[in-house]
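Q: what does this look like with flavin-adenine dinucleotide bound?
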Amino acid sequence: MKRYDYLIVGAGLFGATFASEATKRGKSCLVIDKRNHIGGNIYCESIEGINVHKYGAHIFHTSNKEVWDYVNQFCEFNNYINSPVAIYKDELYNLPFNMNTFSKMWGIKKPSEAKAIISEQIKELNITEPKNLEEQALSLVGRDVYEKLIKGYTEKQWQRKCADLPSFIIKRLPLRFTYDNNYFNDRYQGIPIGGYNQIIEKMLKGSDVLLNTDYFEFIKENEGIAIKTVFTGQIDAFYDYRLGVLEYRSVRFETETLDEENHQGNAVVNYTEAEVPYTRIIEHKHFEFGTQPKTVISREYSSEWKIGDEPYYPINNERNNTLYEEYKALADKEQNVIFGGRLGQYKYYDMDKVIISALEAVKKEFDK
Ligand code: FAD
Ligand code: UDP
């Protein structure tokens, strides 16, 4: 077999960005993935002419102009703005937490009224430095919003008590005292017109690609196939879990095609009460303002992860972060392996952060 400059493990966004930049610099790349398709978690499957986000809803958003310009060379983005709604029992609220949410919750109109209610609800809690997600959420939005819109959803999603989760998870969500339902604060946002696959396809032009190929099997037969390896799988798996297993949450998707044009009127509807077993329902066509006669929905069930399942969300608690640092110390000693991406760096990265991180790896590698 041919010898390459780089063996890139994982045809997701990190691997594809690296491959694109490396081939641009005249390097030869072999990209392998154990799945039967490219794209990693941003892969879209076409069903009834609708781009179905197979591994969960993906909305591109960033405040980094360089990254925005970078992805726009591969596709055109539409003007989708993510504005999920939350259903708690028979009540419907706008997300993220904003004046629409507070107005519906308390029958008020003014920001000062909302702030006064929140202050009243948290005054006896005396939280100065929030130590966990529960304290963080309570101190930001008060007891009512916490009980109805956060507690049930978060505990379903993470299968852990809010008091046992790190506060940064909830800080991902904006909190506003304006009537603005945009889920993100970022300057740039949208969905690629025609789905995400085209980005990865263009990035991988010029690389050889092997699908259905697991690294650990492949490398036994093909040692020395490349000078260097870019590894975007799980860092602990690379080291055969020798220091311990890093934990994840997994997600099970129940996808259904419905013989109706518009099922829920919005791309994302969260179910925030503990009693509903799924966390949210995605209606994929709304990401691209689809007008197809049918619709495709996915119910998302958060599930416990074990080795062999798809790892989705790294659980960045103290135990896992410490263990990751130990693996990273091993990784830092590698001369010929670059670890990257959500799994390789064990980070809760959004797509824009993955691109930034891949471009940093490229810089480090080539601008010596
Ligand atoms: P991945 O996409 O996971 O790619 C890694 C690839 O490596 C996979 O294809 C895997 O099959 C392959 N691989 C692993 N091990 C091996 C092996 N041993 N051999 C061969 N191949 C291997 N980001 C946003 O910006 N906006 C969003 O709205 C958003 N929503 C999300 C929703 C969900 C449910 C999830 C889980 C993530 C979401 N993200 C979102 C994050 C986004 O998915 C990631 O930032 C991005 O896809 C990570 O790219 P990656 O290349 O690091 O990893
Ligand atoms: N969250 C919540 N209620 C909601 C939506 C989100 O409590 O209706 C919390 C929950 O803890 C979740 C976190 O906010 O893990 C981050 O939400 P986000 O939508 O960013 O999650 P992701 O995109 O990672 O699925």
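DSSP finds twelve helices and 16 strands in the chain. The first helix runs from residue 13 to 24.
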